[in-house]
Amino acid sequence: MPAPLIRSMTPVDVEPVAAAFLREDWGDRRVNLEFVTHHQETHPFVAEADGAVIGTGVVSLNGSVAWIGTVWVEPAWRRRGVGLELTRAMIETAEAAGCRTLVLVATEAGRPMYERLGFEVQTWYRILETPGLEGGEADPRIRPFAEGDLPAVEALDAVATGEDRAHLIRAFAAPDTTRVLERDDGSLGGFVCRAPWGGGATIAPRLEDAEAILHARRVANGPDKRVRAGLLAENEAGLERLSSTGWIEAWRAPRLVRGDPMRWHPETIWGQFNHALG
After folding, report:
1. Segment 103-108 long-range contacts (CB within 8 Å, at least 24 positions apart)
2. Distances from the Cα of 238 to the Cαs of 4, 43, 45, 93, 128, in angstroms?
3. Do 37 and 14 form a contact (C-beta atoms < 8 A)?
4. How far apart are CA 109 and CA 72, in angstroms?
5. Angle CA(153)–CA(158)–CA(164) in degrees, nearest 5?
6. Rounded CA gap, 44 and 67, in Å?
7. What is the Cα–Cα distance from 174 to 109, expressed in whole angstroms?
8. Would you say 90 and 8 are in contact if contact means Cβ atoms under 8 Å apart?
9. What does DSSP assign to residue 275?
10. CATH code assigned to 127-252+259-271
11. Containing H/E element for 243?
């Protein structure tokens, strides 16, 4: 049997891939797939056998850092090297683009493969959730994003993540998707920028500012929806504060890294676009 063909994902692949993800209980990822097949800094791949897509992967180029994710293989093709070849294709793409550090979030099933490719555990994500609020008011310092906020938002994000995610922020930031916290001196203390599929990059260097942003999200969602936050293990103060105020851990996963050390501040990160983009 010939080896599967590894090739770029195209818009034509979106519907069959989205249907496969639904069969695997990955949720409806159609909007995300449409984004990555059109966005210049994201490079999605598929593995194809006999004309059918039997695997996927996405690499996002965030300056000198690349994120690898959305690695999926059809059950009948697992443990046959398909995930390995997809990951190698993404690594080659990232390195050819000049990325010196590769990052991913691993499942327990996938972690041994990534470690064979030179990835090591850097830290852990802990995803917490809590119900929205009925009534209540958001902190008055929180307001909709304005175009003039873009340089400050990008600067906050770069310091926190050690990445250049300006291409994602510019793609998603708008008054109806993004909220910023403006301090009394006019500087920005943090932001949440929501992607079309629901994930939200959330950055705040100060604990009290992060709490205010998360509280505003709870107020906006209302009691019928839940709110999630994604913290790193280094954010001990944040994890302790949220746990003490009723947030419950939904899941956790290791963040793996390969390549040059990063200059970042994980204690200031409170949420992600998703775990294929950062």
Report:
1. 103/65, 103/66, 103/67, 103/68, 103/255, 103/256, 103/257, 103/278, 104/67, 104/68, 104/69, 104/255, 104/256, 104/275, 105/69, 105/253, 105/254, 105/255, 105/256, 105/275, 106/253, 106/254, 106/256, 107/253
2. 45, 33, 36, 35, 11
3. yes
4. 11
5. 105
6. 11
7. 38
8. no
9. T
10. 3.40.630.90
11. helix 236-244
Compute how many other C-beta atoms are within 10 angstroms of the C-beta atom of residue 278. Answer: 21
Place of tokens 């929806």: 225
* Beta-strand pair 101-105/65-73: parallel
Instruction: Quickly tell me which residue has 């493969």 as its tokens.
Output: 113
**What's residue 1's pLDDT?**
63
Reported as a single tens digit per residue, the pLDDT across 142-197 is 999 999 999 999 999 999 999 999 999 999 999 999 999 999 999 999 999 999 99
CA distance 207 to 266: 13
Q: How far is CA 216 from the centre of its chain?
A: 21
Tokens (6 digits) for 50: 């006999």
DSSP letter for 4, please.
Answer: P
Give residue 61's pLDDT: 98
What is the distance between the alpha carbons of residues 210 and 173, in angstroms, rounded to a whole number?
18
**Domain spanning 5-99 has what CATH number?**
3.40.630.30
SS3 144: strand
Measured CA to CA, the distance from residue 153 to residue 147 in angstroms comes to 10
**Cα 42 to chain center, whole Å?**
13
- Cβ partners under 8 Å of residue 155, min gap 6: none
Q: How far apart are the first and last CA of the chain?
A: 37
- Name the residue ranges covered by the structural domains of the chain: 5-99, 127-252+259-271
